[in-house]
Amino acid sequence: MTQAAISEPMADVRDMYMAHRMFRREFRLLPQLVRDVRPGDTERAAIVADHADKICAILDAHHEGEDAVVWPLLLARGGERSETIVPVMEEQHHGIHEALTTVALLFPAWRATAQRGEELASATDVLVDRLVEHMAMEETEILPLAEQYVTAAEWAVFGEHAFSSLPKKTLALGFGMVMYEGDAEVIKEVLANAPFVPRLVMPRLGPRLYASHATRVHGTATPPRLGR
Q1: pTM for the structure as a whole
Q2: Of 3.40.30.10, 3.40.50.720, 1.20.120.520, 2.40.50.90, which CATH number belongs to 11-166?
Q3: Dihedrals phi, psi of 151, to nearest 5 degrees
Q4: Is 182 helix (H, G, I), strand (E, B) or coil?
Q5: What are phi and psi of 10, to 5 degrees?
Q6: Around Cβ 88, how many Cβ atoms within 10 Å?
Q7: Please, what's the largest Cα pairwise distance for the chain?
Q8: CA pair distance 39, 28, nearest whole angstrom
Q9: Model confidence over 68-98: pLDDT tens digits?
């Protein structure tokens, strides 16, 4: 199906920019969170490790949704431009997954001992560099293609697929993380398409969960905004 053959409303990708803003903020802050834990302070290490587990799970689910839904649609419809850029995206996902795996392997021992934090922080730096590079290219190359070749209904399927594997509490916290720097108009439109109960409770629950979580992790309900 070509762009000319698509008569349905097309994807509104503004929610992806909000998700990227959240990932940039939380992952850029993570290496210093690790470095700030005093050797032997396992109580604080557990707090940071729990936070890392959550944001890594959200990122992994997000990328699984792109792999399963977005890339095949673009390859089928986007012509030479998609055929050039989608393999780059897939390779970057592979590199990010490798970095996530390395970090995941290091966190348990650090959580238990709060020792060798610099090794973990350095591995997290690698993850951040790969993720930031990937999101910048995705915003420049992929999102314009999605606006042309992915319908609004298919974009909704991507969102549902991306987060269907997450526990409800993690999903609610993730939405609160996005809302922290999110565009109010876009948030309203995203919630308008949500089931009744999330649509009703999320505007209050999400920010409340994130404020509590951020206070525990970052020491403040309003951590630095690192949108770009």
Answers
A1: 0.93
A2: 1.20.120.520
A3: -80, 165
A4: coil
A5: -95, 165
A6: 14
A7: 62
A8: 21
A9: 999 999 999 999 999 999 999 999 999 999 9
